[in-house]
Write a structure and sequence with these properties.
A: alpha/beta, FAD/NAD(P)-binding domain, Enolase-like, domain 1, 25% strand, B: mainly alpha
Chain lengths: 447, 526
């Protein structure tokens, strides 16, 4: 029986394992050094905040793996011996495979800052990071002040986490506005305000110069590059993005760039070795996507796809329309299609913001054909299926606005803003778009 | 703010302590007049009992309800035993001993509480309400801006099965045991709500009036908490208002006012089989004897169960009842909300739930079958089993132990819907309709789920919501009461409760939306 070994028990590896099991009877082993069982990395923040216990982050009960004949091995892979199809572990044992899927995920970026390896300096990525946080920032007595370096999704999550335990936070963001490499100015501004509203000391255009140690080798303060200001702190969160975690390939002949190089079939240069999820790097970017996609959803899709290939239905990774979501303190964010920080040559934009300053939508469409390119929605939930369909059918912004009532996914009885949105568009573009009534028939129509 | 909350907590605890200690205050003395009244009201023919009470109880002062109760209940039991041995069935007193003792105690209590009912109302209910509100209302500020703020729930001893949770558990279980099985111990509690009862029904308060009033009070105060916690969520606000309205108006005010007009006590929203004694002969007789209104109630009760309930479930899901109307649901969604995360989500619990909740439904239906057979045929027993016995077993096991002691007492340990999930026969009935013939579903938003688990954690019914959401499947579950909290706590906007066409309501998916279109098609064709 063919033995499939998967290194990494995150969403990519586990999805691959589940789908291989659905499609075949192959022997499956998942190897992880991080945790005994699969957990949702994105939920670690809620454990620290007390919304959940760690066991709640595990999507499957512990009996699930045995029942589905997925073996779990805890161990740290030291070397991949692709000649002999063998994994060598730090614990000095080994495991042979017929096919190997590398799904080792990411690791937090460190940019060589002085003091970056001190105690009390950490990222927020792994289960171990969560445990360290309980050591260095269990409450505002032990941690009187925290500094977060890096203004992305993990940075703002860490800020929210520490804030939930009443720990004062200084948030250093290199850019002139929060996440403005991804978000257009309006949305970025909205989130800046949300950060400030929650009492976070947000420092835009600020870089970390160094982290100062106390006599015990623990961080005691940081210095800001631009101003030279020293900020005392007991915890430094390094959240300046992530990079593929590919240390495992160092002693092998597997081709790497920033990540493990794969073709569209998620195959590496070595036969029978595949790479999926955050650690994989496409030789050529797919459409407008990054060659490295470090997102939950793409990891899952690669897992779904590689399972087909391994089970004899060779299939290229071919993701559909881009989508993503996040939550910034109390403001939820979803996006479908593409809305760049800066409009491209052929693009026109429409932006509507609610007077509360906590809701907005941003439509991106082609200037000439009016075809929808993407939407950002903040504080309003939108139906994934609706926008997927609009993008598949290449509908115009006019059509989308006419049917906007179909798109809303907020809970029942929530105030609807479609009329206001359409009216603003009409005013700005001198059009006469009429909002159509919500239709269950259209919503649940299977195209 | 913290100081105000601490003050509130202090006042609440003082109120609670006084309330608890009332049991031990006051004295009980039966006068010859009271005894005569009881004898004639209840047409007691047992000379044994009368003599026993005259020698051992009348004219004596009892300093606590326990001695008093034990004197009366033992007298009753001894007398009954003698009559049964002598086959003097006419002299046997069929009242439950502690209910009998309660009636005498209610008339015989003396002392400071009975003399100062208003004062003690303020010292117990008053302080409790004031304290709780002072504790709750500052949340407007301390919770931060509107939004989901479940911070620290699993870190706090009150909400993570810590020592406060266990303490609350013991207190609640104790309360329910007294309420159902030792009403004669809590006569003092009923005194403080006498004035309110008199103004509504004209009668002195029974322990059930006390319970009804306490129920409404607790729900109202905890509804304030809900309004603050979910002030950003209109579904929650409307739902809370609805359960509060139905509890206060339908379950409390209307029945009491009916009694004032010498009509039967009836809660118009309490549907059979939750209202398990609706078809009991005493109820049918009473309704038939009450003229037009009684007949209306009889017809209404039948139509409610057979037509209104299922039709509404078809259109809106069982939520219309369980989390918008029902009193049990109302308490669960207000007092119980802080405990919703404690429900068991394991597959084992789900299997157990299906057996037991449907078992109770079958039990209720069989009991009702026996009851109606007895009613129309006049036979006391069916298949050799006495109808009365089966009714008593149901009333004790399901009506009192399951619905009360376990159903609410276990909130702090097993979550707030223990009764609704494992025991309620009406929920089982509604669930069958919801599962097989309804427009209601929780829609999963394409591929947006990140498996974080907030939805499952906060599902009071113990549904593993995430198991469906992460597969892109809609949630169609008979147990779902549609409280809407899964959708509220979801950080990525993945879940929406909605009523739509039945077509495509159940949508098994292999691959989630957002992946290769060809792959999706490929799997569909397979």
């Amino acid at each position: 029986m063919e033995h499939i070994v998967i290194i990494g028990n995150g969403i990519s590896g586990v999805t691959a394992a589940r789908h291989i099991r659905k499609l075949s009877d192959k022997k499956i082993t998942i190897v992880s050094a991080e945790s005994d069982y699969f957990f949702s990395r994105t939920a670690l923040m809620y454990v620290y905040m007390g919304h959940m216990k760690f066991k709640h982050t595990q999507p499957y009960e512990n009996w699930f793996w045995k029942k589905n004949r997925i073996e779990l091995k805890k161990g740290f892979v030291k070397k991949i011996d692709s000649e002999n199809k063998l994994l060598l572990f730090a614990e000095d044992d080994s495991l042979s495979y017929d096919k190997l899927i590398i799904a080792t995920g990411s690791k937090p970026n460190k940019f060589g800052w002085p003091g970056q390896d001190l105690k009390g300096v950490q990222g927020l990525y792994s289960k171990q990071d969560l445990e360290n946080l309980e050591v260095y920032a269990p409450n505002n007595q032990v941690c009187k002040h925290a500094v977060i370096v890096g203004g992305g999704l993990i940075g703002i999550e860490l800020a929210e986490m520490l804030h939930s335990r009443h720990i004062p936070v200084t948030f250093l963001v290199r850019e002139t506005s929060f996440w403005d490499g991804v978000l257009p100015k309006e949305e970025s501004d909205m989130i800046n305000k949300e950060i400030l509203r929650n009492g976070i000391d947000l420092r835009l255009s600020s870089n970390l110069k160094e982290i100062i140690s106390d006599e015990n080798g623990q961080a005691k303060s940081i210095i800001i590059e631009e101003t030279g200001e020293e900020i005392p702190c007991n915890l430094v969160g390094l959240t300046a993005g992530v990079s593929p975690n590919i240390d495992i390939t160092k002693t092998s002949t597997i081709e790497t760039g920033r990540g493990i190089k794969v073709n569209r079939f998620l195959e590496t240069n070595i036969p029978d070795i595949y790479a999926i999820g955050d650690c994989a790097e496409q030789h050529e970017a797919i459409g407008n996507r990054n060659p490295i996609e470090a997102v939950w959803y793409t990891g899952r899709m690669m897992g779904e796809t590689v399972a087909q290939t391994i089970c004899g239905n060779k299939m290229a990774y071919n993701p559909g329309h881009w989508f993503n979501s996040a939550k910034f303190f109390d403001i939820e964010y979803q996006t479908y299609g593409w809305v760049w920080a800066q409009p491209k040559e052929n693009e026109a934009r429409f932006y509507w913001e609610h007077k509360s300053g906590k809701k907005c939508i941003h439509l991106n469409y082609d200037k000439n054909t009016k075809e929808l390119i993407g939407i950002n929605n903040f504080g309003i939930r939108m139906r994934h299926e609706f926008f997927d369909k609009m993008l598949n059918e290449k509908q115009t912004v006019t059509y989308v606005l006419e049917h906007l009532a179909d798109a809303n996914f907020d809970p029942e009885f929530y105030k609807l803003h479609e009329k206001e949105i359409v009216a603003k568009f009409n005013l700005e573009n001198n059009t006469n778009i009429q909002l159509r009534k919500k239709s269950w028939k259209r919503i649940f129509q299977t195209s | 703010m913290k100081n105000i909350q601490n003050l509130g907590l202090g006042l609440f605890l003082i109120g609670l302590t006084i309330f608890t200690s009332l049991i031990f205050l006051g004295k009980y003395e039966v006068t010859p007049q009271v005894l005569d009244e009881i004898i004639s009201n209840k047409s007691i023919k047992s000379e044994h009992l009368i003599n026993d009470l005259k020698t051992n109880v009348v004219g004596k002062e009892f300093s606590n309800p326990f001695l008093f109760s034990s004197e009366i209940t033992s007298a009753l039991e001894i007398a009954n035993e003698t009559h049964k041995q002598n086959s003097e069935w006419g002299k046997v007193i069929w009242d439950k001993p502690h209910s009998f003792s309660y009636e005498i105690a209610k008339k015989s209590g003396t002392g400071i509480i009975k003399e100062h009912k208003g004062l003690f109302w303020w010292l117990t209910f008053g302080l409790g309400i004031l304290g709780a509100l002072l504790y709750i209302i500052p949340n407007v500020i301390t919770l931060g801006p509107p939004g989901i703020k479940n911070n620290g729930i699993w870190l706090h001893a009150a909400t993570n099965r810590g020592w406060i949770g266990w303490f609350a558990f013991v207190f609640l279980v104790g309360f329910y045991i007294l309420l159902y099985f030792r009403p004669d111990y809590i006569v003092n509690w009923t005194y403080i709500v006498d004035p309110i009862s008199e103004s509504l029904s004209g009668n002195l308060a029974s322990q059930w009036f006390l319970y009804g009033f306490l129920y409404c009070t607790v729900m109202t105060v905890m509804a304030v908490r809900m309004y603050i916690k979910y002030r950003h969520n209109k579904y929650q606000i409307l739902r809370t208002t609805s359960v509060l309205f139905f509890q206060i108006v339908f379950a409390f005010l209307i029945p009491e006012i009916l009694v004032r007009f010498e009509k039967p006590w009836y809660d118009f929203k309490n549907a059979f089989p939750l209202d398990y004694d609706f078809f009991f002969s005493w109820n049918l007789d009473q309704l038939i004897a009450s003229g037009g209104l009684g007949i209306f109630i009889l017809v209404w009760g039948i139509v409610l169960t057979l037509v209104i309930v299922p039709v509404m479930v078809y259109f809106f899901g069982k939520r219309w009842y369980c989390s918008w109307v029902c009193g049990c649901g109302g308490l669960a969604e207000t007092l119980g909300d802080p405990y919703r995360q404690l429900s068991d989500k394991s597959l084992f619990a789900w299997k157990f739930e299906r057996w037991i909740v449907h078992g109770v439904l079958v039990f209720a239906l069989v009991m009702t079958g026996f009851t109606l057979y007895t009613y129309f045929q006049g036979a006391e027993a069916v298949l050799g089993i006495k109808t009365q016995t089966i009714q008593d077993i149901y009333g004790f096991l399901i009506g009192a132990i399951f619905a009360g002691v376990i159903g609410t007492g276990f909130y702090p340990i097993f979550g707030n819907r223990v009764w609704c999930r494992f025991g309620c026969p009406l929920a089982a009935y509604l669930g069958i309709v919801q599962r097989f013939k309804s427009r209601f579903r929780i829609t999963t938003n394409g591929g947006q789920c990140i498996s974080c688990g907030n939805c499952s954690t906060y599902c009071e019914m113990g549904i593993d919501v995430r198991a469906y959401a992460q597969k892109g499947e809609n949630i169609i579950r008979s147990s779902c009461v549609g409280c809407g909290i899964c959708a509220a706590v979801c950080p990525r906007g993945v879940l929406k409760l909605e009523n739509g066409p039945e077509d495509g309501r159940i949508n098994p998916t292999e691959i989630l939306l957002g992946n290769d279109v060809d792959l999706l098609d490929f799997l569909k064709q397979k």
